[in-house]
Amino acid sequence: METFLKIDDLSVGYWTRRGKVGALVGIRLEMSEGETLGIVGETGCGKSTLGKAILGILPPLTEIQGHIFFRGRDLPRLGLEEYRRLRAKEIALIFQDPMTRLNPLMRIENHFVEEILAHESVSKAEARSRAREALLSMGIHESRIRNYPHEFSGGMRQRIMIALALVLKPSLLIADEPTTSLDVIVESQILEILQDLKRVYHMSLQLITHNMGIVAEICDRVAVLYAGKLVELGSAHDVFHKPLHPYTQGLLASIIHLDTKELHSIEGSPPDLISPPSGCRFHPRCPYAQQICVEKEPPLVEFQKGHLAACHFGDTFL
Amino acid sequence: MPKAGSLWAYAATRLFLSLPMLLILLTIVFTVLRIVPGDPIAALFAGRAPPDVVAATRHRLGLDLPIWQQYVNYVVQVFTGSLGTSIGASYHGKSVLFIIMDKLPATIELTVGAMLVASIVGLSTGVISGTRRDKPSDIALRLYGTIIFVVPIFWLGQILQLIFAVDLRLFPAQLRFSGGPPPLMITGLYTLDSLLEGNLGSFLVSIWHLVLPSLTLGLVLSGFFTKTVRANLLRTVKADYVEAARARGIPENKIVSRYAFKNALIPVITVLGLQFAILFAGAVLTERTFTWDGMGTLLLTAINEADYPMVEGVIVVYALIIVLVSLVIDVINGLIDPRVRY
């Protein structure tokens, strides 16, 4: 059986005035159908780039190398029209900030109708009734379908975005920090919706986030990105209980614990991706760094079944 | 439309508020005209009339009254709708309002033609430029936008006259009509009147005469549109909702038209309203270049003859038109942009 999603040696580079930014370097990742994969890391580590790369909506002049196989098709090599037809229909993306993601001059209904007609040859009336259904399933009342985006709150807009993402019943949903800009109550509503998708519809979900709590709550497996590289990959259980990469350990330690009220942070900040550090990219911030970490780049090694990490000393944390 | 009621209230308020503005403008023009050198009586008789005739005329025209009384008389005339009586040689003794109404259609035809040229040329070049950033066509159009914006109107007009009227003999170099009597006066707009008359021939002749002046004025204005449309498009093609639309698989041509272009148009429409003032100033020069018998030519004549009521009248009418245009622009913006509230 062919793999649902297989990312093979994917590198993405942006060209800037100062040189090439290696936003993603040699990413290898697989995802099976129905799985929820969490992608975590700090701001600027390449998480959002990964989502946009899968959907093929990176800005022009971006350099993409490697393969993204989705149900046997190599996405970066698809024709423009074929790629367009795949978006929203097979792979959908929800963005971080719902406030700016809807066309301010367009009624909510038209966002749906336009999307449905862009992919399927159905009548306008049919498209409208499906729009109503999709909105109702997200708890937005029919009477508001002809409203404009500015007439909705942030949480409602994110539910509209989710409805837009799901209306064509895609098999993969990528959610790029879907709750970051929302308040905690709305956040928990959105997370509940995502969990329903997973439980009831067995939707494959790629959840991009920097919130380890959300990962623990919904993800089956976790991929940790640091400075454009995959540094750890494993089941959520393994990664949380036995983090093998010092960066993952740092991320987990930086969650506030109510009983101890201690808050740890990872010293320093993510490196400049135009001239990343030699060897292991995390070595300048790593509490365990040795000479070898400066000189040699650690390969991604499977330390135990299904649990991979890119650290020279991964086995010492087992 | 639930906000229609408030729209009317808004329009009425705006019109009401324009009254004090007009009064202030009137006062400034009145004052400035009496400060700058130039005497209507001297202009009228070219300095050759005997002193008693000069004094008698000055008395007849009310110019011997104290300045404040002249001012009060004038304001009363304006607000009773007559705009006064011309004191210049060309239109002596005629109603200012009547003369303006006679000349206004020519200017309206010219400015509408120019706006059409400016919008069509400006929008299309702006879209090409904005969607092909830093490609040769963009660089060429940016250059066009800058150069055409600083070219003097009379120079461009004369170059067009030289090429298309003198050398190629494709278009006439002057006047609004030729080859027979102009269409019957109904609205004063030759294009419209000839159509109302059912005379397609004279319609074509009036359009034929409109081409070069409209092109001159329109092209000069188009540079500003090119730049505004381009700048706004560059902003909206990078907007989050454009990226989100792309992620939903919306075809690229629809993204450009419904997302990027429509959103980029809102500030452009506002700028278009502001451009109307510049348009009238440009129309004065264009009318002069093409011997176009409109408000601009009238204004120049009135200034030469120190025809106070006429100059003031023309400026009041210009101001009124600009007030109305900016009101219309506001309404259009409200219709396009659902976020606008009155």
Beta-strand residue percentage of chain B? under 5%
SSE string of chain B: HHHHHHHHHHHHH
Mean pLDDT of chain A: 89
Q: Taking Cα atoms only, what radius of gyration of chain B do you get, to the nearest Å?
A: 24 Å
Largest interface (C-beta under 8 Å): A-B, 29 and 22 residues
Number of helices of chain B: 13
Main pleated-sheet profile of chain A: 8 strands, mixed
Distance between the termini of chain B: 13 Å
Taken from the alpha-carbon principal axes, the silhouette of chain A is: globular
Which structural class do you get from the secondary structure elements of chain A?
Answer: alpha/beta
Number of strands of chain A: 12
Report the average pLDDT across residues of chain B.
Answer: 85
The helix fraction of chain A, in percent, is 25-40%
Number of domains of chain B: 2
Q: List SSEs of chain A in N-to-C order.
A: EEEHEEHEHHHEHEHEEHHHEE
